[in-house]
Amino acid sequence: MIIKQDFSQDNIDKFKNELNMTDWSFLNQFSDVDSMYNAFMDTIQSLYKKVFPVRTKPVGQSIAIDHRPWITPAIKKSINNKNSLYKT
Q: Which of 45, 57, 67, 71 is the most buried (most CB within 10 A)?
């Protein structure tokens, strides 16, 4: 399984915009620094997950084989033939 996040310039700009658009005045309601920090980090993490979601992609045998440059088309054909014979 491939896990990735899109850190393109567009998403970085979206994240900056989200940070700028956030009303941070809610942090003033906390009386202690620990609660304020936790609320701040929760907000940052929420925005981060929103703008940079984790995407997973399953990696099957055909995808994995395509990433191996030493696997020639003839070898791929032989692998597929072997797999089809195995399944029957």
A: 71
